Amino acid sequence: MERDIIIRKRDAVATRATILAAAHQRFLRESYDSVGLRDIAGDAKVDVALISRYFGGKEGLFREVVADEEKPRIFFEPKSVAELPGFLAQLVVEDAGEDLQKRMEMFIIMLRSASSPKAGEIIREFVHRDVLDPLTELIGGEQGELRANMLLAILMGIGVLRTIMMVDGFTGDDDDVAECAERFRCLFAAALTC
After folding, report:
1. Residue 3 has pLDDT above 50, yes or no
2. 93: exposed, middle or buried (C-beta count within 10 Å: 0-12, 13-18, 19+)?
3. 14-48 pLDDT tens trace
4. Cys-Cys link to 32, which of 44, 50, 113, 124 (CB 3.0-4.6 A)?
């Protein structure tokens, strides 16, 4: 009697995505230092060696989790400092639904793991590369870095209100949204001029 051997076709893209999804959920619930690769491998139902193969280990995996693949260079969009206040205001008022949920989860992952020396280093690198450095370059001048930090502090405060504290009075009918956008534009413009 001949035995049939079933060979499953390996799908590296799907396996990688499954590992990333499992890691995202683990880092959302636990800090970087509390999460083990075996936990993630178990959640993804893969051999732990695949995590090292695809991501190089826990650091590489965490780096992939916190990277924003859909909008990786969003702060490179405004082409002049004059466009920046309006761009940031629209970013705040248009942040809703699925985008808000994704941003909320990413914010929680970063907050949970920021105290870890290794994860904190990755988070700082990400924030500088994708947020502070492009803002500083766009703003320019002697106080460009300070102003970029001020804008980020305002954005983070708004993010905490919306994502962690669930305070969101920035929605409504079109007139309310337009009013909010204008007030935020003025706030961001003031942060650039003081």
Report:
1. no
2. buried
3. 899 999 999 999 999 999 999 999 999 999 999 99
4. 113
Q: At what angle do helices 174-193 and 84-93 cross, to 10 degrees?
A: 140
Are 23 and 62 contacting, i.e. CB atoms less than 8 angstroms apart?
yes
Q: Which single residue is written with the structure tokens 């500088």?
A: 128
Assign 146 to helix, strand or coil. Answer: helix
pLDDT of 8 strictly over 50 = no
Per-residue model confidence as pLDDT tens digits over 149-173: 999 888 888 877 766 676 666 666 7
Q: Measured in Å, how far apart are the chain's first and last C-alpha atoms?
A: 84
- Of the candidates 56, 164, 58, the residue with the CA atom closest to the CA atom of residue 121: 58
Helix 174-193 / helix 144-159 crossing angle, nearest 10 deg:
150
Q: Which residues contact 181 (CB under 8 A, 6 or more apart)?
A: 86, 89, 90, 92, 93
Structure tokens at 70: 């859909």
Q: What is the set of domains in the chain, with CATH numbers?
A: 12-66 (1.10.10.60), 74-193 (no CATH)
- Residues 131 and 75 sit within 8 Å (Cβ to Cβ): yes
- Mean pLDDT estimate for the chain: 83
Give the closest residue to 14 by CA, choosing from 54, 49, 48.
54
